[in-house]
Each structure stands twice: as structure tokens, then as C-alpha cells.
Design brief:
14 strands; binds pyridoxal-5'-phosphate; eight-stranded mixed beta sheet
Length: 389
């Protein structure tokens, strides 16, 4: 009865089962995988947010397939604050970055066409690709005093069916930004092979050194779709508002955006109240970002100070984002380690294989976890791993 593309293994995996067991045991869980900022105890400008949701404009329906002009102008102003110029007509609003991905996949790919994705990276790509009948080709990132794109493998991965390259800037969970030189190479490869570049910048504002990084919206060498949204930059995933920005050679950009407009017009998925509220919601991001980065710095300092007191584990360098990657003895699979930590320590961490790390020995922890929980969880993990080597 059902299409092959939905033929997923729907059984609960071992780690999810272990989480269930731990939760039903009634013991307190130290959850080092927190990724929902609205549940991490940050103080939002509640008055501003709630007032924005009461705007009279929410009572009218004047659909615009690219999104309300006022909301697109707020997005253009966001880029202005990053010293980048984005014309409002180059912005298309979506309900989420995931929806933006699916629109762009539909724009670029016939069934079975290929997109290149970084590895390790964000695990949702597999489902997005399945649903859009796209085949993913992984290009490796390698670690050598920081993360780098393996351009040799990336170039080898480009087949006649390749339609685009995805880059996550900074990447999740490795926390590295594409360097200006890498950005140019990505543009050049896409231009030569007539592919599009798809840049996910949901964590762009979260550089550890708080220095502005160049956005892909400023790149014009190849057709580029840059995505972001309120879920990370404003810490408001519940609002379901995101966008994509087209840039690149004028004719291709115009045609790409015109076709995307038809896709967006078919769904008109973004609701009016959120679009009307979007300027005010974007406006309160600084206060949220400051708190979040303060926590990331505090947890990272705590992690480093605990790591200094032992020799068995380490952490990989990162430049931004909300996660840290721990290097632990690869005495068993990452999944086994994560399950044992849940069962023996009541600590929940993500195994590296969840993000496609090429070998065992990596665990991912969230730096936006409440500080006391983070301190205690890392303490338990590091004490326990001393017995592993
Ligand atoms: C790299 C990356 N892109 C996109 C998303 C999803 O964003 P949205 O909530 O806008 O779909 C996430 C969520 O964790 C992410 O890590």
C-alpha cells in the first residue's frame, strides 16, 4: 500500500529504548543532549513576543507566495546587521529550514538525482532526501587542528546526476565555519558543474569569538540558496518561521526564485500572525544570543577544566554552534557507550555515529544544557571513562 520512500525502520533504536527505560525508572536523568532553547531556562523578552502576536495585521489574509513584505524586510535587515545586502525580493519565507530544504530539493532534483552533503553532519538530511526522492552523496570533513572540507573527495563525488552541494556554516555538531577560501572553492565547483550551493546558516550568529562570519548570501559565483530561521537565531523553534535567500548569477537566480515561488504558492504554508510578528521576534534576538553564548562559554570552560584533570578523554576544537565533540576511548561502539552511560550513570549523551562520525570514540554533548546539570553530567562521564582505557 505504501511508497518505497517511506519504508523506514520504524522500530525504536537501542538508545531510545534505554532513554525510555531510564525515564520510567524515576531516577533523575542528566540530559546532555538538550537542543530545544525554549526549555533551557533562557529569559526571553516575553512582553515583546506576546505583544507581537497580538498585532491587528493577524486578522487579515493577504497571501504573498514569497511571504509578507514586512517580514522579508526584517530578514533583509538581519543580513544588513551582518553587513550583507539582501534584496527583499530574493527572500522566500518558509515554516522551517527543513521546509526550505525540501523546496530547494524539489526545485533542483529529479527522482534519483544527487546532492552532496558533509559528513559528519546533521542527521535529518537522510529523511529530507528520502521524502524528496533524492540520493545523498557524503563528502568527508577531516579533523587536523580543526575541521576542513576534503575537497579531493568532494570533487570525486560529483557525478552527472549531482545537482548541488550542501554546506552547514557552522556545521552541526563539529562547530566549524567554512573558511573564505573554502567558500570560494565551493562556489567554483558548483559553477563549473552547473550545480547549486545550499548553505545552512542556522548557527551563523553563534561564533565562540563573537566575530561576524561571512554569510553565503554574499557569494555570487554560483546559484546559492542560504537558509536560516527563528528557531536558532532567536531561540524560538515553536514559531515555525524560517527563510531562504537566493543569490548568484542574475538570470539563474531569477529563474530559480520564480520556480520556488510556484512551489511556495502551492502550499502558502506560513501563517499570517507569525509573519506579522516576525520583525519584533527577530528584534529580540540579541538578548537571547548573549545568554546562550554566556552559557556555551561557561560550559565549555567547565568541560576544559575537568578534561585538564585527566588524560583519557579530550575534546575537538570548535569555532561555534551549541555542541562539543568529546574524544573517548573506542573500546566499544559509541552506541554501546551511550547506552551504558544511561544505564550506569543516568547521563544522556549522543553517540558520534548519530551524526555520521567515521569511527567510534566520539560523543556529542550540548553546551546549552543548564550549567549544574552539565557540570555533574561531565563529571560522571569523565570519572567513568577513566576505567575504559
Ligand atoms: C544544522 C541544522 N539545520 C537546520 C535545523 C532545523 O532548523 P528548523 O527548526 O528551522 O527546521 C537544525 C536543527 O537542529 C540544524 O541543526
Amino acid at each position: 500500500m505504501f511508497a518505497d520512500r517511506t519504508n523506514w525502520n520504524l522500530s525504536t533504536n537501542r538508545l531510545a529504548q534505554a532513554v525510555e527505560r531510564q525515564r520510567s525508572s524515576g531516577r533523575k536523568l542528566l540530559d546532555l543532549t538538550a537542543s530545544n532553547p525554549s526549555e533551557c531556562g533562557f529569559q526571553y523578552d516575553q512582553n515583546k513576543i506576546l505583544q507581537a502576536l497580538q498585532h491587528r495585521g493577524a486578522l487579515e489574509y493577504r497571501p504573498d507566495p514569497r511571504g509578507l513584505k514586512s517580514a522579508r524586510t526584517a530578514v533583509a535587515e538581519y543580513y544588513q546587521s551582518l553587513e550583507a545586502t539582501v534584496p527583499t525580493e530574493d527572500v522566500i519565507l518558509t515554516t522551517s529550514t527543513s521546509e526550505a530544504y525540501s523546496f530547494v530539493f524539489r526545485l533542483l532534483c529529479n527522482p534519483g538525482d544527487e546532492l552532496l552533503i558533509p559528513s559528519p553532519s546533521y542527521p535529518l538530511f537522510d529523511f529530507l532526501a528520502d521524502i524528496q526522492d533524492v540520493k545523498l552523496i557524503r563528502y568527508p570533513l577531516f579533523y587536523d587542528h580543526g575541521w576542513h572540507i576534503d575537497f579531493h573527495s568532494l570533487r570525486n563525488g560529483v557525478t552527472p546526476r549531482a545537482r548541488g552541494i550542501i554546506v552547514v556554516h557552522p556545521n552541526n555538531p563539529t562547530g566549524h565555519f567554512a573558511k573564505p577560501e573554502e567558500m570560494s572553492q565551493l562556489q567554483e565547483i558548483c559553477a563549473v558543474h552547473d550545480m547549486a550551493l545550499i548553505a545552512d546558516e542556522v548557527f551563523l550568529d553563534f561564533a565562540l569569538d563573537r566575530k561576524r562570519r561571512r554569510s553565503f548570501v554574499e557569494e555570487h559565483g554560483a546559484l546559492t540558496f542560504t537558509m536560516s530561521g527563528l528557531s536558532k537565531i532567536c531561540g524560538l523553534p515553536q514559531m515555525k518561521a524560517a527563510w531562504l535567500v537566493g543569490s548568484g548569477p542574475t538570470d539563474k537566480k531569477r529563474e530559480g526564485l520564480a520556480r520556488l515561488e510556484v512551489i511556495a504558492d502551492t502550499y502558502l504554508s506560513l501563517n499570517t500572525p507569525i509573519q506579522v510578528a516576525a520583525p519584533a521576534l527577530l528584534d529580540q534576538r540579541d538578548g537571547f544570543q548573549e545568554q546562550l553564548m554566556a552559557r556555551v562559554h561557561k560550559n565549555l570552560a567547565e568541560l576544559d577544566s575537568q578534561l585538564e584533570r585527566q588524560k583519557v578523554c579530550g575534546r575537538l576544537e570548535m569555532e561555534g554552534g551549541w555542541d562539543a565533540v568529546l574524544r573517548v576511548p573506542a573500546t566499544r561502539s559509541d552506541e554501546d557507550l551511550a547506552v551504558e552511560m544511561l544505564e550506569q550513570l543516568d547521563v544522556y549523551v549522543h553517540p558520534g555515529h548519530f551524526y555520521g562520525f567515521p569511527a567510534d570514540g566520539y560523543l556529542v554533548v550540548s553546551l546549552i544544557t543548564h550549567e549544574p546539570e552539565f557540570l555533574q553530567g561531565i563529571d560522571r562521564v569523565l570519572r567513568w571513562t577513566q576505567g575504559l582505557s
